[in-house]
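Structural prep section.
Before we set up the soaks we want a predicted structure of the protein with uridine 5'-triphosphate in place, mainly to decide which crystallisation condition to try first. Input record follows.
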Amino acid sequence: MPTSAVVRKAVVPAAGLGTRFLPATKAIPKEMLPVVDKPAIQYVVEEAVAAGLDDILLVTGRGKRAIEDHFDRARELEEVLAAKGDTAGVDLVRRSAELAAVHYTRQGIPKGLGHAVLCAARHVGNEPFAVLLGDDFIHPGDPLLRRMLDVRAQLGGSVVALMEVGIDQVSLYGCAAIEPADADDVVTVTDLVEKPAPRDAPSNQVVIGRYVCDPAVFGVLRRTPPGRGGEIQLTDALKTLAGMDPAEGGGVHGVLFRGRRFDTGNRVDYLRTIVQFACERPDMAEEFVSWLRKYLDDLG
Ligand code: UTP
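Run finished without errors. Recording the tokens verbatim:
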């Protein structure tokens, strides 16, 4: 049965081990690393809320308790700030607890992104839902999810976000075979290949970390065997959905994203994100940009 319900829920997988950021991530979840002064995962939750999704499920695991504390009230801290008359501080501390209804489920063993999404099945039920990866940072000024939700409302099925990369980069991503669809920024996805060698890549449009999934994805994930790296891959399930009948929840479209995206799972891109966000922050840009200019001049 095709489902046409409005999307209300977002799933944010945050159970990965974060091995590329060791030793920082030995005791701190990767998702809590700050971009200037806000944890990366808060930007992701804010992005979902800005797109109209007010029910957020975070998929966490061992060692991720700091994430739960972050989206909870911190009474003692609020009281200390209030006693000092720091109302702006109180607002900042409270904001993350009041953003949305945040729920949690645990992925006991990190068996891959597809498996993390499958852990959300009970909470999501038979509704379409969004998936946002904390590693992919979409600039708040370039809304992508809203457009993906519009495409789902119009065309049904599932929707992935695609971005053009150099052919030498395709082996880092899931890569899409595409055909034109009605709108200039929308394509039909006919196939997906996880991390292909450049010569095997069907295009240079790669899947980035925003998805709108038909609930049919859960049935497909249950049947999807471990793929690359021994992990259950979301890309493999989407590939199956791309070949399935729309009457059974199949069909995948892609939104071609041309905005600013940072891969904060990668250390150099993480630093780029922080520098760019600091340069754009009205409260610190003047001081930081002039220091940066001088620093770069001195470097020669
Ligand atoms: P990554 O592939 O970046 O894995 O996952 P990772 O473990 O977080 O990081 P590295 O590669 O070891 O440094 C992409 C997203 O999927 C989540 C991660 O938390 C991240 O947000 N994920 C991945 C899970 O929730 N469960 C998994 O089993 C794998």
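Observations: Residues 285-299 form the longest helix (15 residues).
Flagged for discussion at group meeting.
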